[in-house]
Write a structure and sequence with these properties.
six-stranded mixed sheet; 0% helix; disordered N terminus; Immunoglobulin-like; mainly beta
């Protein structure tokens, strides 16, 4: 908080002052223009869908043209209305047309249209049919990152529709393994999923063969796993589990340990014990060993698999739309999390392109104090990196900086409502009005009012002035 002005207002009277679209994917089709041994369009006749394009490519050793229509006698006409003007094709030249209307479009090369035995005339047709709109499909159950306990009996559910036809079937998959197919609504498929990580998708297929597939829904089916001691070895010594699984280490007697060998220690520490239980909530590789028998090769590894998600987070303070004075020291606070891993670093940045790095914080709480000497509005965000080197960027917050005006106390006056005065301010900045605790002395001051200015001249009234004879006031800017 910075003191900007101090003023005495004395009076002998009282004184107080934030799925998918159902479309046909357009295709560009290539027609090769050949010659001179055979003047031809290849393919000569082609069928495409509305929205598709034809690109004529001259691979001949001579020039050609692409002229819409048919030749009758010495006249070229086209009852279907040409979609393009006659266009010359230089050597290695190309010409492209997009077709948006259903119909048959004949065309020719005016230079080589006449048949000269044994050559055929250089003509062609483009037949345009209505594009098949792809079906829409949405996987409604289960939701992403749902967890179950093995064996998991559940129902996969989807909705599907087709704007220009009929949905023939909806297929459900775990990865590339098809779990089943449903041919009529409701598109529900009861399944039993084994322990593990399942990447579930649904694919809708229409009666014309068009299809659409949903984004992956991650499903975790957790189980309890066991590792036992066999001589001076862990059995199994290498274990692959799903994130969220629990592993029980049995048969340790009183002279074995299950001790983490890496930086991360999700195991049972250095104490000897008969058994221990640990749950693995992070994706990654976790080596372990027995302290007394490590030299004898008594080691193991738990490999934890699951969706490796990028970190998520946001700037929590200051709020979007905040206003500060230039050079004010601002403390940024952020939160960052990683669902199945750990946040390694949070970098505070300003701007969009290019970014200006303000600093990196590696441990929570994620805070950074900085300033900005430039007038204007700037976007701030955090760049997060996790222990798998996955990164993400938070939504930006926009913060404005203004050149602070000198605080002036103006128009002091006593009224029936109390002592009043105005003070100059920057809209958006926060100001504190303080008054002396005792008459006749400027100190100590006590806060009377705190507010965010919404104009460049703020009126203030101290309603307690009827009990005061002589009081000092000051106005402070908080940022």
């Amino acid at each position: 908080m910075q003191i900007k002005k101090l003023i005495w207002l004395a009076t002998m009277m009282a004184a107080a002052v934030v799925n998918q679209t159902e479309t046909h994917a357009a295709v560009t089709n290539i027609i090769r223009v050949t010659g001179p041994s055979t003047f031809a369009f290849s393919p000569t006749n082609i069928q495409i869908a509305t929205g598709d394009s034809i690109c004529w490519t001259n691979v001949s050793s001579t020039t050609h043209d692409v002229t819409p229509g048919v030749r009758v006698g010495t006249t070229t006409n086209n009852a279907a209305s040409p979609q393009w003007a006659p266009t010359s094709l230089a050597l290695n030249g190309t010409f492209q047309v997009a077709f948006s209307n259903v119909g048959v479009y004949p065309y020719l090369c005016a230079k080589h249209v006449f048949a000269i035995s044994p050559r055929l005339g250089q003509t062609g047709t483009v037949t345009v049919v209505q594009a098949n709109l792809l079906p829409l499909v949405n996987l409604t159950s289960p939701t992403n990152l749902s967890t179950f306990t093995a064996p998991a009996s559940l129902t996969l559910s989807a909705t599907a529709s087709d704007a220009d036809g009929t949905v023939a079937s909806v297929q459900f998959f775990s990865g590339t393994n098809q779990l089943g197919s449903v041919s009529a609504e409701p598109y529900d498929l009861p399944v039993t999923l084994a322990a593990g990580w399942h990447q579930i998708t649904a694919r809708a297929i229409d009666t014309l063969g068009g299809s659409n597939t949903t984004e992956v829904i991650n499903v975790l089916v957790n189980s309890n796993r066991t590792v036992v001691i066999a001589g001076l070895a862990f059995s199994p010594s290498v274990l692959t589990v799903t994130v969220g699984d629990t592993v029980t280490f049995n048969g340790l007697a009183s002279f074995h340990t299950v001790t983490g060998s890496g930086v991360i220690e999700p195991f049972c520490g250095n104490a000897s014990q008969a058994s221990c239980v640990t749950t693995f909530n992070r994706v990654g590789s976790f080596p372990f060993h027995c302290n007394p028998h490590r030299a004898f090769g008594m080691t193991g590894l738990v490999q934890v698999v699951g969706p490796n998600l990028p970190p998520t987070g946001r700037i929590t303070s200051p709020a979007d739309g905040s206003v500060f004075a230039t050079n004010a020291m601002i403390t940024f606070s952020a939160e960052a999390n990683d669902r199945y891993g750990a946040v390694e670093s949070v970098r505070f940045v300003r701007g969009i392109s290019p970014l200006t790095s303000l600093g990196v914080v590696t441990n929570a709480p994620y805070t950074l104090t900085t300033n900005n000497a430039t007038v204007g509005t700037f976007a701030y965000a955090i760049l997060m990196t996790d222990d798998s080197n996955l990164t993400s960027t938070s939504a930006p917050v926009n913060i404005s900086f203004v050149a602070p005006v000198d605080i002036q106390l103006l128009s002091p006056a006593a009224s029936s409502n109390g002592f009043t005065f105005d003070y100059t301010a920057n809209p958006g900045l926060t100001y504190v009005v303080e008054g002396a605790a005792a008459d006749g002395s400027p100190v100590p001051f006590v806060p009377i009012s705190t507010n965010v200015a919404n104009t460049n001249r703020v009126a203030f009234t101290d309603p307690s002035s009827s009990n005061r004879a002589n009081r000092a006031y000051r106005v402070l800017r908080q940022q």
